[in-house]
């Protein structure tokens, strides 16, 4: 994580009190950071692990902040988390994976549906030859799922972080052999993947 990212999710956030409204980007960052901490606190999550805080900050900068630029879209994501995280159980999933998949579910519902229909493959413990896995690297196909051109690379990278079997490279495939995947209830674990796809996408995407 970058120095800015590493400090994004301290144990407790004290909202700034500027004399003038902060710039739009900074305000959106502040709303998202504070909102996520509030949601997790409401769910009884007192603290995140150091690794979770780093991953959360990285996902915010690499994926979320580029789309969540307006209070409305941020509020909608937070509402989804408040509504559905208690149903799944915050202790039964990895909170960062759940956040990213919730973002994909409400932003790109067609993509989420396709991921859900291939969840067993995404949580495979071995390398497999699959048209679907190869398609996740196909920009044209992701565009057909409603991912804007400027967001395709970021979305592909997020999918590879969620499901290392998609990446198929030495930098990520080692996760498939890691015991921590099951211990941390990651989305890529065969015993836990179904919990991340138990929810239906909303009728309209987050950006609408």
Which secondary structure elements does this structure contain, and how are they paired or packed?
Blueprint: H1 3-6, H2 24-42, H3 50-67, H4 71-88, H5 95-107, H6 109-117, H7 119-122, H8 131-135, H9 139-144, H10 152-162, H11 164-167, H12 170-173, H13 180-183, H14 193-196
What would your notes on this structure say?
The chain has 208 residues and is mostly helical. Helices cover 59% and strands 0% of the residues. The protein contains 14 helices and no strands. The chain has helices at residues 3-6, 24-42, 50-67, 71-88, 95-107, 109-117, 119-122, 131-135, 139-144, 152-162, 164-167, 170-173, 180-183, 193-196. Helix 2 (24-42) runs parallel beside helix 4 (71-88) and helix 4 (71-88) crosses helix 5. The longest helix is centred in the first third of the chain and has 19 residues, at 24-42. The two termini are 31 Å apart.
Give the oligomer, counting copies of the same chain as homo and different chains as hetero. Answer: single chain
- Tell the overall outline: globular
Overall number of strands: 0
Average predicted local confidence, pLDDT: 82
Q: What structural class do the secondary elements suggest? A: mainly alpha
């Amino acid at each position: 994580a970058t120095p800015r990212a590493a400090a994004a999710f301290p144990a407790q956030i004290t909202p700034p009190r500027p004399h003038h409204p902060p710039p739009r980007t900074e305000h959106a960052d502040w709303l998202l950071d504070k909102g996520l901490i509030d949601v997790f606190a409401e769910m009884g999550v007192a603290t995140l692990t150091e690794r979770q805080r780093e991953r959360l900050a990285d996902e915010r900068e690499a994926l979320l902040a580029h789309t969540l630029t307006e209070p409305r879209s941020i509020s909608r994501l937070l509402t989804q988390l408040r509504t559905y995280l208690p149903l799944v159980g915050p202790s039964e999933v990895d909170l960062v994976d759940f956040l990213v998949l919730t973002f994909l579910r409400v932003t790109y519902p067609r993509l989420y549906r396709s991921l859900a229909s291939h969840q067993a493959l995404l949580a495979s413990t071995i390398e497999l030859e699959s048209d679907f896995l190869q398609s996740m690297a196909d920009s044209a196909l992701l565009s057909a799922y409603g991912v804007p051109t400027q967001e395709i690379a970021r979305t592909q990278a997020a999918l590879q972080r969620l499901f290392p079997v998609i990446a198929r490279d030495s930098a990520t495939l080692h996760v498939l052999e890691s015991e921590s995947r099951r211990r941390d209830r990651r989305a890529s674990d065969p015993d836990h993947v179904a919990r991340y796809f138990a929810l239906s996408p909303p009728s309209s995407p987050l950006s609408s």
